[in-house]
Each structure stands twice: as C-alpha cells, then as structure tokens.
Amino acid sequence: MQCQGESKQAGRATELCSEFEVEFMEMPFGKYRGVQVTELQFNYLQWLTSIELMEPLRTVVREEYDKRLHDQSRWEGPIDLKVIDEIISAGVRGLARVHHPDVGGDHQTMALINNTADWLREKARN
After folding, report:
1. Do 58 and 94 share a domain, yes or no?
2. Does the pLDDT of residue 57 top 70, yes or no?
3. Are residues 52 and 69 in the same domain?
4. What is the DSSP string of 37-100?
5. Residue 16: how many CB atoms within 10 A of its CB?
6. Neighbour count for residue 61 (Cβ, 10 Å)
7. Which DSSP state fits 120?
8. How many C-beta atoms lie closer than 10 Å to residue 45's C-beta?
9. Is the same domain home to 68 and 97?
10. Which of 17, 30, 32, 110 shows its CA 20 to 30 Å from the CA of 80?
11. How many CA atoms lie less than 13 Å away from 106 in the CB half-sphere?
C-alpha cells in the first residue's frame, strides 16, 4: 500500500496515511502480500506483533490484533454448565490415560489434575 507524504518521528521517516487508507491497508510483504490486514489469520497477526514493523503498518496490525483479542474475551451468550462439565471431564479422562498411577503415572500429578478440574468446575458455577 502506498501512502501520501512523509514526516519525521523518532528520527525515522514514516509515511502518513489517510484514515480511509489505513482502514483498508494491505500487507506489503510475505505470503499474505496484497491481503487486507483485517482479513489476516489471527495467528499471523499475533506473529506480526512480535516483529519490528514500520509505521503505519505497525499501528494497524496492533489495533487489529487488540480488537480481535477483545472480541475473543467477551462472551455474551448463555453458558451451559453441563457442557462445561463434559469438556472438563473429557480433558481429565485424556490426561488420566497418561498420568494415572495404574498406567505408570504419578499419584501427585493425577491429584493435581483432579484438583484443577474441581477448581475449574467451581469457577464455572460462580
């Protein structure tokens, strides 16, 4: 994406983009070259936040990443406690196949798994 004009910021030349251009910014490199930042996969956005990017791409990537994190952390639907219990129980069963003392695992590890599952169930109810 090409932006108009230049300014000096922190000793570096950075490009200035209009609000419209930033909203529809496309990736200038990599396998997603030409893809709008809003269309990128979450794990690729996450990786982009860990590398050094030039402005305005850095700001656009960070804002999109933060927006998606916020969207993921908000849950507005009803929560079914039976489903939560089934998910926790399935996880405990999977871990028990590896860590239960009857299959060569450690008693303390299995106790920790059971205590953690109980804690998760209690958190879901409150």
Report:
1. no
2. yes
3. yes
4. GGGS-HHHHHHHTTS---TTHHHHHHHHHHHHHHHHH---S---HHHHHHHHHHHHHHHHHHH-
5. 14
6. 22
7. H
8. 20
9. no
10. 110
11. 4
Statement to judge: residues 100 and 64 lie in one domain: no
Same domain? 57 vs 16: yes
Q: Is the pLDDT of residue 34 over 70?
A: yes
Amino acid 38 reads T
In which domain, by residue range, is 10 found?
A: 4-73
Q: Pick the closest to residue 118 from 82, 89, 78 (CA basis).
A: 89
| Residue 26 main-chain phi, psi, to 5 deg | -105, 150
Looking at the predicted structure, is the pLDDT value of residue 25 above 60? yes
* 56 and 92 together in one domain: no
DSSP secondary structure, 107-119, as one string: HHHHHHHHHHHHH
